[in-house]
Amino acid sequence: MATVAAPPAPLKRLAPLDAGARLDDLLSKPYAYRSWEDVYRDQWTWDKVVKVTHTRVNCISACSIDAYVKDGIVWREEQNATYEKSFADVPDFNPRGCPMGCVYSSVMYDPTRIKYPMKRAGKRGEGKWERISWDQALTEIADRLIDVVESDGPECIVYDNGTTNLDFGIGSPMESHLFATGVGSTTIDSYAGVGDLPVGLIQTWGLYMSEGTADDWFLSDYIIMWIGNPSYTKVPEAHFMWEARYRGAKVVSIAPDYNASTIHADRWLNVRFGTDAALALGMVNVVLNEKLYDEAYIKEQTDLPFLVRDDTGQYLRESDVYEDGSDGVFFVWNNLTGRKESPPGSWGSPYSTIALDEGLDPALEGAHRVRLANGRRVTVRPVFEHLKKRAAEYSPEKVQEITGVAANNIRVVAREFAAAKSAMIYSSWGACKHYHSDLFQRGMAYLCALTGNSGGKPGSGIKVSTWWPPPNGALTGGGLGGPSVRLNTNPVPELPVDRVGVQELSKVTFQAGRMGSAAPLIPWLYAHDKKWAEMASKQEYNDPSLPRPAREYIDEALAAGWQPVPPYPKRPRFLYYSGPNPLRRWPNPKLIRDSLWASLDTIVTLDFRMSTSALYSDYVLPGCGYYEKPGIKYTSTYVPYVVVGDRAVPPLYESKHEWDVALLLAEKIQERAIARGLQPYTDRRGMQHDLARLYTEMSADGAYTPDEAGEEKALDFILQYSHITRNSGLGEGAWAKAAEKGMVKIKAVQPSALAVGFNSVYSDYTEDRPMYSCGWFVERKNPWPTLTGRQQFYIDHQWFLEAGEELLVHKEPVNSGGTYPLRMTGGHTRWSMHSIWRASEELLRLQRGEPVAYISVDDARKRGISDHDRIRVHNDVGSFEIRAKVSPSVQPGTVIVYHAWEGYQFKDWATQNDVAASPIKPTNLVGNYGQLHYRMASYTMNHVPKEVAVEIERVEERA
Ligand code: SF4
């Protein structure tokens, strides 16, 4: 099959200043270059320096970078150090950047670059392509999409809203807007799909976005890094932690390996892999026994005084006591009156406050007899009593046996944490990738709650990456009229209230979550891939303490609609993604590739580089690199800035901005819909769609166009009117002003805007101090968005009671992938951002140049493995080969494979994800219980690549 149809477009090369053999050539030109010194000097002159950033990279940071351009080529980049000094006594944000960001100028020109639209010309993955025009590509894709709308319904079109595709400007938002709102497709919710969802925090707090600005770390007196390695994963922010030590803060690392962040710590608790919940319980034991807890705080802010029935293990509810009582109203025992009374602020309470009036002093201890509505009398006691009983099972000596951490060290850290004026736990997304991560996180939340450190004051809380309200909402947000495909040309008015109750908002999302377009990845794979479901629900890989088969729970959750899995019972037929790399990222991708993936009729990749997934798709569309388009970077709260990047050079080859592609595709769908006479339709959610008017509507009657003028107009509008930039005084020409500086300082944000969507900090933003989270609950006494309105230690859902997890408990890691002696874990690396940069020559030179598994000296010796030997890592569900890096920093019994190598970097394309069985934990699928309900990017099962059971063996290499 012929593979090339047209001559390549001319690309300007680095002719004048290219290195090596061309030097003689240059010197032979008498007037241009008179000596080698001139060549050297000219290397440091530029046609222009442009403020850029790395928009569609899931690094969560936002850094402004200077790109140095000459002869139409980006030669190099440098960190931009123009952030303002915010506070006299707190370090500033200068400079920001990371190793990857500083070599992107070479990655954009490397051989993985996708140059032209291409169509598969052989079997999927065979590597045979036909170059086609943009018009042909868009026409065929539009026709295939309309085919699915006509034959199966729009929900069978799937858009993978992965994580390495996100920007908060006009690229990714426009694509997801086109698919979800314009077409009515299914959107894969990949938040937990990559293992990033802090499920334990949702269980305890009803929320999980709990970060402020990163300079708040500097104000902490006691910092625990718990399953976190910020020196690798938070390169631009980590300095605030290390600098906090200059004002006397103590830094503790809790990690099984001696990692790059641990070297900055004052103490290292070398916990046995996977036993973090036991360690937390050991510290809780010390805090309770030595009465180090903050009594007034826990009476107000937690469910510890709430009464639980001895007979059922469930909270005593108003509906238990009165015929017409609410099951969202609970009781405490009032020390002042000697009677049970209902505190305000719970899910069913008419009062939206958790403040206790002076006539109510909830008891933490004691047992009482109460009469139920049916006349029966039962014994009740506060959650605190149950907690004491549970913690008593975890004395420091017992915990030493479980975790390997000396009892004395457990006592010391517990006492220091409780005594600190302000203590924080850094434990972000890396801490969510174990089967029992929710237990680890509940343990962290318990410690913070008992000692009054769950946010609401400087330098406290559990620090988990959080976003400002995404600025693109100004353009795509439908306002109070609900979702609309029409882009805004007039600003959506500010919310009519200055504040909204987070618990109230949670009740709304409880309802809305069921009818959204989103499908959380792990349940979705379970519903749509039989082979995968068989693996992930295997009883031997799941929690042995469950009284019923895992499969029974999962099927029950899906049947109840607790986890939406559209288009089930239909099958997905069309998959479009832009930036993500599902065949690298999804658990056990080789299995999926031969199963669900193979059953899809059409797969479209838009990307700037040829990823593993692109190689297995039907159409490949070339997207712009980061320096070839204007855009807005992730607006994470780490920085009080909106960082923007301008177009330093025109799009390379035939690549296009995702904004342009989304609008061009909409235009083509409209053209084909008219030609085919497609009638308007209603999707499964009841939303109306008319593809014959898709572009007309989406472009707001041509107000926005798929070109440079349209891009700038959209960005201008966003920066003028978004929640976080509308008060920055940019006015007319907002984009041009922002692009010149590379950033916009956030000046003021309406508090209610900070509660919109799944993102929030739950604190007011002010320029007077670094921002911390959860202030509304602690300072303003707003109810937490949980069933009890408090930080909830106790979960009385039946499945939690069956699993013995109504309170925190330690459970050994499950046999994920079979019964094997080692546990494979991983994490983000210093030399790639997911699979982007994984093939970068510069960065590979800083490593071994190929995938490696870090193994301990002990495990290597026992198996006759030497450093750099080739080894096979295997279990029941798969195997892969990799080099061994024997390291004394690795805990025996563990194998560390940092992600995210591409399939093509391994023999037979088998990667570390191919041994991931990803068992599904039933309690993570629960719905219909206060804070436990699915909504986009919240409460569902994570991908769990971190505690995979494996064995390793040396592989004989061919001579
Ligand atoms: Fe900053 Fe992310 Fe770019 Fe690195 S890749 S320089 S962390 S924006």
Fold blueprint:
Elements: H1 22-27, H2 36-42, E1 48-52, E2 65-70, E3 73-79, H3 104-107, E4 118-120, E5 129-131, H4 134-151, E6 157-161, H5 172-183, E7 186-189, H6 199-205, E8 222-226, H7 230-233, H8 239-244, E9 250-254, E10 267-269, H9 276-289, H10 295-301, E11 307-309, H11 318-321, E12 332-334, E13 339-341, E14 368-371, E15 377-382, H12 383-392, H13 396-403, H14 407-419, E16 423-426, H15 437-450, E17 461-463, H16 473-476, H17 502-512, E18 518-520, H18 521-528, H19 530-536, H20 550-559, E19 574-578, H21 582-585, H22 589-593, H23 596-599, E20 602-607, H24 612-615, E21 619-622, E22 631-632, E23 641-645, H25 658-676, E24 681-682, E25 688-689, H26 694-698, H27 708-721, H28 734-741, E26 743-745, H29 775-778, H30 798-803, E27 822-825, H31 841-844, E28 852-855, H32 857-862, E29 870-875, E30 878-886, E31 894-896, E32 948-954
The protein binds iron/sulfur cluster (SF4).
Main attributes?
single chain; 959 residues; alpha/beta; eight-stranded mixed β-sheet; six-stranded mixed barrel; 32 helices; 27% helix; 14% strand; disordered N terminus; binds iron/sulfur cluster
Quick structural gist:
This protein has 959 residues and is α/β, with parallel strands linked by helices. Helices cover 27% and strands 14% of the residues. Helix 5 (172-183) links the parallel strand 6 (157-161) and strand 7.
